[in-house]
Amino acid sequence: MIRAGFAxxxxxxxxxxxxxxxxxxGDWETTPASEAALARxxxxxxxxxxxxxxxxxxxxDLGLVGLGALAFMADGxxxxxxxxxxxxxxxxxxxxxxxxxxxxxxNIADPKRDMYNHGLATFVxxxxxxxxxxxELGGVLERALKLIAATQCRDGGWDYExxxxxxGHDLSLAVMQAKALRSAVDxxxxxxxxxxxxxxxxxxxxxxxxxxxxxAPEEEQREHRGQFTYQKxxxxxxxxxxxxxxxxxxxFGQYDDWRIAKNMEVITAAxxxxxxxxxxxQVPFDAYTLYYVGQALYxxxxxxxxxxxxxxxxxxxxxxxxxLGNAEQDGRWHDGARVGGKPGELFGTAVACFVLAxxxxxxxxxxxxxxxxxxxx
Length: 377
Hints:
Blueprint: H1 6-16, H2 32-46, H3 48-51, H4 62-74, H5 85-98, H6 114-131, H7 135-151, H8 171-186, H9 193-204, E1 207-209, H10 218-221, E2 226-228, H11 239-251, H12 258-272, H13 287-300, H14 302-319, H15 341-357
Antiparallel strand pairs: 1-2
Helix pairs in contact: 2-15, 4-5, 4-6, 4-15, 6-7, 6-8, 7-8, 8-9, 8-11, 11-12, 11-13, 12-13, 12-14, 13-14, 13-15
């Protein structure tokens, strides 16, 4: 079941924001160096020369702007609360201003990025609403959820553009919307169970065993190594997709799904091979992959989390740019793969700060106990 005292826990967390309280299990999760790196990264994000007057870090991708807000919230800073409450408010305000009141769409960039931006932005707004109820934000979330349900394809996935088709495009889109659904429900809103069930079926269909047919009986597939892939046919077996599939199953209570262990083997092996180059600003893997790997390790917990999180943490500490006296450089990371310029620095720095702040467990998505079966009203 979802932890019964969630409201009380959240209240205690928010009360502890200003006293420096955190929920880290010990110095194996956080270190003085990682706390300093997190503080320096948040300072970079909040600096006026970086965030800008509009609060969007020169990006028109609402998902990336949302990640900036998520970084602040992950360390307990909310509108009206905390050192970076105002910076968090600016980014959330930008997202709310740019939401489409007619359709609920959270994208103002190329329509080919509709559901990437929409899913990620909806996830972030759901976390914000769960931490501090807001009527305007709640209205935007309700419209965003309706759009996700309306644009789900008949196979359970989603297309890049906000439209329903027979077949969804790939796993990355399905996971984005699944996370958005869970985030919104955690904040007290509703999502159709049939949408969630169909999405979970689509995610499982992206699992590809090595040495067996994807359509083989599960008993046969379990005998082989395998992982989640970008395409249902097996193309795109990346670390990002392995982690994204795990995150999706975990968030919807599928803890005993045998595919989780198979993918964690892939993820942990990749993390253990990381070798950072000091002060080059490169996050582990790339920002997109790190975003899912950090969450997968945390949600599975146990040995994978205890063994691999310190590697990610120390990699981030080692690679963070340090340029004292230069506010536009000091404390940042960069994406390293997909996004350049200031938006790429936003992407890398926001994800790095989010991962460094995971042990604080301020975000609603990080405070849940296990559930026997995911249900919505």
